[in-house]
Design brief:
The complex is a heterodimer of chains A (152) and B (546). Chain A is of the alpha+beta class. Chain A is 34% helix and 20% strand. Chain A has 4 helices and 5 strands, in the order αβββββααα. In chain A, strands 1-2-3-4-5 form a 5-stranded antiparallel sheet, covered by helices on one side. The mean pLDDT of chain A is 85. The two termini of chain B are 58 Å apart. The chains are: A alpha+beta (152), B alpha/beta (546). Chain A: Pfam families: UQ_con.
């Protein structure tokens, strides 16, 4: 299904989704994409440039892509373990549908920066803080954005 | 030859008087050796006052018996023994001259050189064991084997040099036996009660002392092993029986689940078992035909057709350049075209889908029930009158080369709407995992909704009921069963009149479904958490029935 990936890549590079720059990590490997996502305005991540790795499995689109933040980010839905795994509902293998496109996945990821999903959090402590002490959450998120995501 | 087996220990000594004919004439037969009436002859029973000095060449539990005698030393050896051993004590020459009888040597332990001389002399004879006693007339039990009193000064090498076990008895007992060895060494007439004895016993017979050393392990050791073996056997039997029983129970449950799946009571997809795939035979019965554009403007043009009437609204307005049969909208050969969805739809129990019951390999080109311009898997557009497409029971269409591998290998669900493509009465091979999952799910549901069984059942077979009703979904009246999330949005056009109302009722169903998914997720996690190898092995033997 390389054809589909190429097609999606062409679409994404010609008309990138809002606030994103997409290119291949390695020109030889269409299964590894690198995305630079701008923190959405109005969120604690505004002004940050977050790097993401999109890994497409061999049998994409039958299996969901895998999203990792390579830039450290303070977010309830991104694991804070050096892998930066992100678990969106639609990326779970039993909820993934082949018609879903990577652009849509990325748009959803960016939307998650605006509105974290505390019900489905990986980092439960961050989720709790987000719910109970929004100010402290935003302060830390901004600090991290400044510290890790302000480069280029 | 086994060397010392450490567990052998003497428990007791029995000495009694035996009479037996000369083996030279009668052979060595067990029944020829007869005990002499103990009231008329010497006998002695010594329990516990016996030490084991060497266990060489003895085996546990094997009692040692033989005729008692005093080994004869070479002239000049051990002069100290002279006063301790009666002159006419039984010697080798007073016993039958054959090596096929067992002997037990008896001697006082005077000093190392005497002991060595005696043991060397006994080595020449068919000796079963050697019994020493300290010539001190003590009635106490002799010292322990590691006592310096028993030291010969060779570091215990004698124990391997002389290949018979060695025991020690108390001085008084030893002296007593030694004294009687002198009485019972010759003719009957010289023995105590000799006259009476000679009346009963052939005077040509031997009458001599014999001894038996009872050795430990006789009963206890083998019985321990036997006991262990019995326990082991019982355990294995319990394992086998329970394993067999559990396997049988599993089999019953698999069969029961299979029946329920076939009857539509349980939706196997809803159990969340991965890799329920579509067998080739089922796949081949799904309609395959050439794509025809129905000219409905793709996607968002909502007003042209409700999906109940795609055939009538689009009678092939794009004239095909080729000579294909035109206007296949009302093709009678295609039973799958939803000509009258409303009539067939409301019954919740589905008649098996007609197109699936007959192998319909290649159908003539006709428009798909919904307008779908691209294949959702490869994102390529379909070319009218050129592209061959496969239509799933939910009426979504794909390239066969895209959808077939997916259904064969990945999933039995439509990639667009996640509805099962399997026929209602189809049951995939039921695995034990499915049985477990289904039971667990049922139990959890019961706990979550103790008073709400019907809606639960609805959740269980939800996807299938959607398949059955999907063709009429747009008509409003039957909308409630349809969850909004399952509508393939670009294709199915909701009539404006029913748009608002159709949202509300499915919500509860969708919520229930979401709940089901959540339960499933939790179970998957739980199952992943416990998967060590030993668990699998044990699981084979004792299947979890949970």
């Amino acid at each position: 299904m390389a054809k589909r990936i190429v097609k999606e890549l062409t679409d994404c590079t010609q008309a990138p989704p809002t606030g994103m720059k997409i290119h291949l990590l390695d020109e030889q490997d269409i299964h590894q994409w690198e995305v630079v996502m701008d923190g959405p305005d109005g969120s604690a991540y505004a002004g940050g440039h977050f790097k993401l790795r999109v890994t497409l499995p061999e049998d994409y689109p039958f299996k969901p892509p895998v999203l990792n933040f390579t830039t450290k980010i303070y977010h309830p839905n991104v694991s804070n373990d050096g892998k930066g795994s992100m678990c969106l509902g639609m990326l779970r293998s039993d909820e993934w549908k082949p018609p879903n496109k990577i652009a849509a996945v990325l748009a959803m990821a960016r939307n998650l920066l605006l509105e974290p999903n505390t019900e489905d959090a990986i980092e439960t402590t961050i989720a709790d803080q987000y719910k109970s002490d929004r100010k402290a959450f935003e302060a830390t998120a901004k600090e991290w954005t400044k510290k890790y995501a302000s480069g280029k | 030859m086994s060397d010392s087996i450490g567990i052998t220990a003497a428990l007791g000594l029995t000495v009694l008087t035996l009479s037996f004919p000369d083996p030279g004439y009668f052979g060595i037969l067990q029944e020829n050796f007869k005990p002499v009436d103990t009231s008329l002859s010497f006998s002695l029973q010594e329990n516990s006052k016996i030490r084991t000095l060497s266990t060489t060449a003895s085996s546990p539990g094997e009692d040692l018996d033989g005729l008692l005698y005093v080994p004869t030393l070479h002239r000049g050896q051990c002069p100290e023994a002279a006063g301790l051993i009666p002159v006419n004590a039984t010697r080798r020459v007073n016993l039958p001259d054959t090596n096929s009888i067992n002997l037990i040597a008896l001697a006082p332990w005077i000093n190392p050189s005497c002991t060595l001389a005696y043991m060397a002399a006994a080595q020449m004879d068919p000796v079963k064991t050697f019994i020493f006693y300290l010539p001190d007339n003590s009635t106490a039990i002799p010292p322990l084997a590691n006592n310096a009193r028993w030291s010969i000064g060779d570091g215990g090498r004698w124990k391997t040099t002389y290949r018979y076990p060695v025991f020690a008895i108390s001085g008084s007992t030893g002296g007593l036996i030694m004294q009687n060895l002198a009485y019972y060494s010759d003719n009957v007439t010289n023995m105590p009660n000799g006259e009476i004895l000679s009346q009963h016993i052939d005077p040509r017979s031997y009458i001599r002392l014999a001894a038996e050393v009872e050795v430990s392990g006789h009963n206890s050791l083998p019985s321990l092993w036997v006991f262990l073996l019995i326990v082991l056997g019982i355990l294995i039997m319990i394992i086998a029986v329970t394993s067999f029983f559990l396997q049988w129970l599993q089999r019953k449950r698999r069969e029961a689940l299979r029946r329920r799946v076939i009857s539509g009571e349980v939706d196997i997809e809803a159990l969340g078992i991965r890799r329920v795939t579509v067998p080739a035979s089922v796949l081949q019965q799904m309609p395959l035909y050439t794509f025809v554009s129905d000219n409905a403007v793709p996607k968002s043009s909502s007003d042209t057709s409700t999906q109940s009437s795609p055939p009538t609204s689009s009678p092939a307005p794009l004239e095909p350049p080729s000579s294909k049969p035109e206007a296949p909208s009302s093709n009678p050969n295609n039973p799958n075209s939803p000509t009258n969805p409303i009539a067939s739809q409301p019954s919740p129990l589905p008649p098996a889908d007609p197109p699936l019951s007959e192998p319909s390999k290649e159908l003539p080109p006709h428009p798909a029930p919904f307008s779908q311009p691209t294949c959702a898997i490869c994102l390529d557009d379909f070319t009218p009158y050129e592209t061959r497409i496969r239509e799933l029971p939910c009426h979504h269409i794909f390239h066969p080369e895209c959808i077939d591998p997916f259904l064969r290998q990945n999933s039995s669900l439509c990639p667009m709407c996640k509805l099962s493509v399997l026929p209602a009465d189809y049951s995939p091979p039921i695995t034990n995992a499915m049985v477990r999952r289904e039971r667990l799910l049922r139990r959890m549901r019961r706990n979550l909704h103790p008073h709400d069984p019907p809606s639960i059942r609805e959740v269980l077979r939800f996807p299938r009921s959607v398949v059955r009703s999907s063709s009429g979904a747009g008509t409003g009246a039957v909308a409630p069963v349809l969850p909004t999330t399952e509508v393939p949005a670009p294709v199915r056009v909701r009539p404006p009149s029913s748009g608002g109302t159709s949202l509300a009722p499915p919500d509860s169903a969708a919520a229930l479904r979401a709940q089901g998914a959540e339960i499933r997720e939790r179970m998957l996690e739980a199952e992943a958490a416990r998967a060590p190898v030993w668990r699998k092995v044990v699981g084979k033997m004792w299947p979890r029935l949970g």
